[in-house]
Amino acid sequence: MNKTITIITVFLFLSVTLFSQVNDSTKKSEKEILKEFQNNMILVKGGQFYMGCTGEQISDCSDSEKPYHKVEVSSFSLSKYEVTQELYSEVMGNNPSSEKNCSHCPVEQVSWQDAQSFITKLNALTGKRYRLPTESEWEYAARGGDKSLEFKFPGSNNIDEIAWYDSNSNNTTHPVGQKRANENGLYDMAGNVWELCSDWYDANYYAGMPYIDPKGPTDGTMRVIRGGAWSYEVMDCRVSSRFYFEPKDRDVNIGFRLALDN
Predict the structure, then answer these.
(1) Is-contact 140 44, C-beta < 8 A?
(2) Which of 159, 39, 177 is nearest to 104 (CA)?
(3) Chain mean position to CA 74
(4) How many CA atoms lie within 13 A of 201 on its CB side?
(5) Which pLDDT value is given to residue 15?
(6) In Å, what is the CA distance from 91 to each residue of 70, 96, 100, 130?
(7) Tell me: the pLDDT tens digits for 20-77?
């Protein structure tokens, strides 16, 4: 009897151990997660473009998108995807998102200040100098950069091809990269989550905006967010649409992607 119990105990121990080893072998290491992220940075070749309420935006523009104006942007790299829950959790040790059972969904419920803390830790881990994109960099990249085909949305005139928004999201975020990429190979530049930019927000900034590599107003109370989100309307997903958010506040619609100087 005791011998039978011992055999069963050993069998159960070996089974649990083997199961744990299989699970551990499928879980990505910190090194693998960071390498995957770094390999998914997309070069956005510098150039000139018209920023704001250009012709393809039709009559959907708000006053804050006017006047449209020429801007020159230097080359930089931008992450192919929005920062995921997997990456954020690995760097920060926690996942603030409302929808937690989706490691490849964009992280949300993060403030502008949270994004800065994440960037500081990520840079310490990688030795790089990641940052949030400026508003002009974001719009230039969303429009397709030097490959732009002048779409109304990032990569298409058909919003359903490239974005999760209020009419197709089923009231939730989705794993990054499921929709079609834009001309630069960037995914989810429209919809899924609003993306934080480095700039302070000023509704009248365009009237006197610098021509070369503008970095936004010197101060303010709100930060720029771009791209629309899963619970927002079509017009919020346009390449020129701009909105704002308090730096300390968090929301289920707010996330971010990262830029890197070349």
Answers:
(1) yes
(2) 177
(3) 20
(4) 19
(5) 44
(6) 38, 13, 16, 13
(7) 343 433 578 889 999 999 999 999 999 999 999 999 999 999 999 999 999 999 999 9
Please state, as a whole number, how many other Cβ atoms lie within 10 Å of the Cβ of residue 159: 23
For residue 21, the model assigns a pLDDT of 40
- The answer to whether 213 and 47 are in contact (CB under 8 A) is no
- Got the DSSP string for the chain? -HHHHHHHHHHHHHHHHHHHHHHHHHSPPHHHHHHHHHHTEEEE--EEEEESS-GGGTT---GGG-S-EEEEE--EEEESSPPBHHHHHHHHS----SS-S-TTSBP-S--HHHHHHHHHHHHHHHS---BPPPHHHHHHHHTTGGG----SBTTBS-HHHH---TTTS-SS---TT-S---TTS---SSSSSEEEEEEEP-TTGGGG--SBS----S--S-EEEES--TTS-GGGGSTT-EEEE-TT---TTEE---EEE-
For residues 118 and 83, the answer to whether their CB atoms sit within 8 Å is: yes
Which residue has 């990688």 as its token pair? 126
3-state secondary structure 56-82: HHCCCCCHHHCCCEEEEECCEEEECCC
Which residues in the chain come in under a pLDDT of 70? 1-26
CA dihedral (128, 131, 135, 138) in degrees, to 10, reads 50
The pTM score is 0.89
Q: Please state which architecture CATH assigns to domain 40-261.
A: Alpha-Beta Complex (3.90)
Confidence at residue 28, expressed as pLDDT on a 0 to 100 scale: 83
| Separation of alpha carbons 8 and 139, rounded Å | 63
pLDDT at 99 (0 to 100): 86
